[in-house]
From TrEMBL:
Keywords: Signal. This is Redoxin domain-containing protein. SUPFAM superfamilies: Thioredoxin-like. Residues 1-26 form the signal peptide. GO terms for molecular function: oxidoreductase activity. It comes from Caballeronia udeis. Residues 29-174 form the Thioredoxin domain. It holds the Pfam family Redoxin. InterPro entries: Redoxin (IPR013740), Thioredoxin-like_sf (IPR036249), Thioredoxin_domain (IPR013766), Thioredoxin_ResA/DsbE_sf (IPR050553).
């Protein structure tokens, strides 16, 4: 599974590089891959621990972020809006806080940021980069959309193209299981 995810991620990255010069990229995957579990999470905030299996039947937006990244901060209004707009239709937003700097590993600092940014959706604190690595992620911010069957079907790296991401959310919510 890891090699398939790496291959898909590499293909997405190459396609994204060819399609955009803005530094942001949104790529629907031609070949979906099973979503990795939320492994090695140090602490869950705003929620009890969640698993991909528990979320079957839901559309899941996994948002890799860190609280001092300006690009991550700039995406938060969109992520929070999607959460509010679509949570009653079956969208589950999971923020995966993966620290860039040592002080970002402190749970109290993450809790303070969650409060400051008024984040109400679940946040998984991924201090050891276990979930980050399972997704072969390399960027802050990064969005991964998981369909109702538990497959990663879309990714977006960086800021921008919010309309494309929202269109993918709506399309996935409209799909039958």
């Amino acid at each position: 599974m890891t090699s398939r995810l790496k291959t898909a991620a590499a293909a997405m990255l190459l396609a994204a590089t060819a399609l955009t010069s803005s530094g942001a990229s949104a790529v629907p995957l031609k070949n979906s891959t099973p979503a990795p579990e939320f492994g090695g999470i140090d602490k869950w905030l705003n929620s009890e621990p969640l698993s991909i299996g528990q979320l079957r039947g839901k559309v899941v937006l996994v948002d890799f972020w860190t609280y001092t990244c300006i690009n991550c901060i700039n995406t938060l209004p969109y992520v929070k809006d999607w959460n509010q707009k679509y949570k009653d239709q079956g969208l589950v937003v999971i923020g995966v806080h993966t620290p860039e700097y040592p002080f970002e590993r402190n749970t109290d600092n993450v809790k303070t940021a969650i409060k400051r940014f008024n984040i109400t959706y679940p946040v998984a604190q991924d201090n050891r980069y276990a979930t980050w690595s399972a997704y072969n992620n390399q960027y802050w911010p990064a969005f991964y959309l998981i369909d109702k069957k538990g497959q990663v079907v879309y990714s977006h790296f960086g800021e921008g193209e919010y309309d494309k991401t929202e269109a993918q959310i709506r399309a996935l919510l409209a799909q039958k299981e």
